[in-house]
Amino acid sequence: MTNTPVTLEGFRGEFPRQPLNARRVAGALEAPGCQRRTALDAAGVNLDKLGSLISGEPRDRQSPFALTRGNQFEQQVVANGMAEIVALARRHLDLAIPEVRQHDLSAAAVREAYPGVTGARMNELRARLTRQRTEEMLTDPAQAYNLIRHAMTRLDFGGETVYLEQDVLAFAIDGRIHVVEIKSYPRIDGRADPTKASATVRQTAVYVLSLQQLVVEIGAPPEVVKTTTMIVLPENLSFRPTAVTIDIDMYVRRLARQLASVPRAADILDAIPAGTQLPAHPDNGADNDEVGAAATAAREALAVLPPRFTDGCVSCPLFHSCRDEAERHGSIARLGTAVAGACGDVTSIAAALDLADGRRAPASPSEAAVAAALARGAAAARIATGGLA
Amino acid sequence: MNALRTHQALQAAAERRAVTTTTRRHVHLSSSPLVVVGYHLAGDPGAPLALVWGTARDETPHCMVVPEPRNRALRFEALDEFAIDLLAYLSRFEVRDDGGTCVDAPQLVVPNAGTAEWLGGIVGRFTRNLRTDGDAPPPASVPLAGKHLSFFGDLLPGSSLMIAATDALTLHWQTGQLPSEDLNLAALLGWIDPPDGLDGPAAARLGEQAPPAGPDSDPNWDADVLADLIRSWHVAGDDPAAQAAVRGELEGEIREQLVPAWMDCWRALDQLVALPAGDHVAGRWLSDRKVWTAHSARMAEGRAFFRNIPTPVQAAGRLRFLESRTQNLQREMAWDDPLVMAALVASGEALAGRVVAVDADRQTFNANGRRQRRPMITLEPTLDFARPAGTNLYLSRHPSVKLEVLPNDASGLIRVEVLKGANQTKTLGLLPTAGDEIVLSPYGRPEFYQRSTVQEIPWTHLQLVEDSEES
């Protein structure tokens, strides 16, 4: 063992990468303060593979039917030179779009133009192109592309720069950039599923924020990127697109705050023993022993990273193993944020019950308050079930 | 989260088994419910994939499958099967009593709120207005069933016409897991009623392994099983024998996925039926029967219309009505159930104590200098009561008796005076006597007179102009 500090690359080792996208950044923020998730995200570890490796369960794929439908809808709205999108943007964003000059910055399109560029250099190239195009948009709006797709932007996450592939469109008209997001869940009678809608808003906020950071780098004020975004959804059960505009300013500012409070990944890694490293992911044909050994090694590597279990963890690929861990430790966090909040800084189930039943004397004023509240609850239940009406 | 519920959650985790949060049952259970579970195609709620339903647990449930859920004709053909059965089931509840109210009402039981919303909000919403006279019309039963489903999808708080099993169970039990995990019926039942040899968490894990209860199917099953079956349906083309084979295979797979959830609904009902019904449950069921009667009359006259988007005034009126019904439900549950009332005692809103003295003849002078009878009750509180003098409380046993907390002295006893309900000769009998253990709750009888209806659009429901200009 050496004494060199663990680096993110060193920690990830040979484990497969998975670049961050907005969904993952938004997901990471649903589990605020989780050092385990922050380190894994900053290191770009493939969480799905890691989750299924340590829990031994197949990972949840997305249903092929949901994928097909989503793609069909997206193809339909971007078909014919984005005719539908342009019409919706004219109407809902109140834009006068005399002419659409679009540019695709997806990996496939860029590879065609610059053959031979791969891996991390590809990301850099796309980010550089995105920056160039955005600069042109702002300096020469009459000539430059005014609609870019699949841009690549950067975002600072826990002190690490992560690349973000935007699946939104960015419209630049009159020196203002508007973000357009296409989603395939239906808007029924003017109302979309609130859970999905709020997830969309949080993801879009990630794009807006990283675009704002880009324009600030270029030297323009961040307000150039409008926080009023347009979300395109199918209307009712048809494929007919309909659009809603939402001002997500509040979410963008909240996101900026949350990102600023993400613990620095480097600090987290400094605190863990030197030499901690994820194992290589076993090959497809690997036998059970090999998979078992890799799972054990992965669990050991994770054990040194403190998790923080909350209600938001359900959507995390590591949910099952963190849940088992919380259960093994008898942690109150296992019961959800509401119960954990009510129990203040008492973190173990046994300790809380001991306090409630007076088997343990409170050690601090906050413990005394928790003990009093729980004892009161228990007493009320005893009186009620004692035959009192 | 009140202190009582928190303590119950801790207890459930420590005992590794769900804890009852009520002593009574607060939902009505029909003797012949219709239990329905179903899937739609992933990402496409308008494309039902399968429904499994039945009214008797010991009979094999009916099963409808759509071999190509995106095909409109196949969808209606399958929905027709379900619609005919639903209409037959509902027609059993048309018998009226002398007052013109149906003597019994139907009850739909689904595994979770998601299924209830899907059946009412999507399947009902998008079939109720189908025209049966155009090109390729759907069977007449489908829009009729759609109207009924829309009715069941839009019920009032406290209604038992449609029961979502997970909601009903979490109302009566507290588990030691995350609230979002309680949405899985099989896992929730594991906590409440673990099989022999397993504790709650272990049984919940076992439940999680079961196929989902819908309306979303397991994405891995979609990829591994369903995709192949739909492909073979397309391969089968117009060959009836091949089509029948694919249908048979799909039905087998669907039964394997959905029948466990269908059985779990019955298990949930078993758990609930073991609890004695609260006193107000019958009253709420009576109002359910009246609502059902009105709906069935509208159906019979062809007047059952549903708005897709309510007008602002309708929405505001509806909201006000829902709020008052929610309050009523909370009140009635607390009156019926000492354990529900205990949550209020724990939070300090209600006062539990032993009566030390009752002064039935106490008189005070009102503002006009006239004598008025204001009986006084002195209580020794069982748990500290910190609400200030002037707080209004009601006897939980006789909610018509309104009390007011008087300034307390140093004795630690709480004194309350009767404002109304037990200050006249004929009502004095409602007063407790010394030595009684009583609870004073914040819940009085609801207002007798209906509040005025909403006439103008309140500011909360003003609509913004669609294409508003950006600032």
Low-confidence stretches of chain A: none
For the largest interface, the chains and their residue counts are: A-B, 58 and 57 residues
Number of domains of chain B: 2
- How helix-rich are the residues of chain B, as a percent range? 40-55%
Major β-sheet profile of chain A: 6 strands, mixed
Secondary structural class of chain A: alpha+beta
State the total count of DSSP E strands of chain B: 15
Estimate the global geometry of chain A from the Cα principal axes: globular
Count the helices of chain B. How many? 12
Characterize the main sheet of chain B: 6 strands, antiparallel, barrel
Mean pLDDT of chain B: 92
Account of the 3D structure:
Chain A folds into two domains: 8-60 and 262-356, no CATH class; 64-260, no CATH class. Helix content of chain A is 49%, strand content 12%. Chain A is built from 15 helices and ten strands. Chain A has a six-stranded mixed sheet, sandwiched between helices. In chain A, strands 3-4 form a two-stranded antiparallel sheet. In chain A, a hairpin with a 6-residue loop joins strand 9 and strand 10. In chain A, helix 2 packs across helix 8 (194-218), helix 4 crosses helix 11 (288-303) and helix 8 (194-218) packs across helix 9 (249-260). Chain B is α+β, with helices and mostly antiparallel strands and 471 residues long. Chain B folds into two domains: 3-306, no CATH class; 339-441, Beta Barrel (Elongation Factor Tu (Ef-tu), domain 3), CATH 2.40.30.20. Helices cover 40% and strands 16% of the residues of chain B. Chain B has helices at residues 3-15, 72-91, 113-124, 141-152, 165-172, 185-192, 200-209, 219-236, 240-273, 281-300, 312-336, 338-347; strands at residues 19-20, 34-41, 44-54, 62-65, 108-110, 162-164, 173-174, 351-359, 363-365, 371-373, 376-381, 392-395, 402-405, 414-420, 437-441. In chain B, the strands form four sheets. Chain B has a six-stranded antiparallel barrel. A five-stranded mixed sheet of chain B has the order 4-3-2-5-6, with helices on both faces. In chain B, strand 12 and strand 13 (402-405) form a beta hairpin. The radius of gyration of chain B is 27 Å and the shape is elongated. Chain B starts with a helix and ends in a 30-residue tail after the last strand. At the A-B interface, helix 5, helix 13, helix 14 and helix 15 of A face helix 1, strand 3, helix 8 and helix 12 of B.
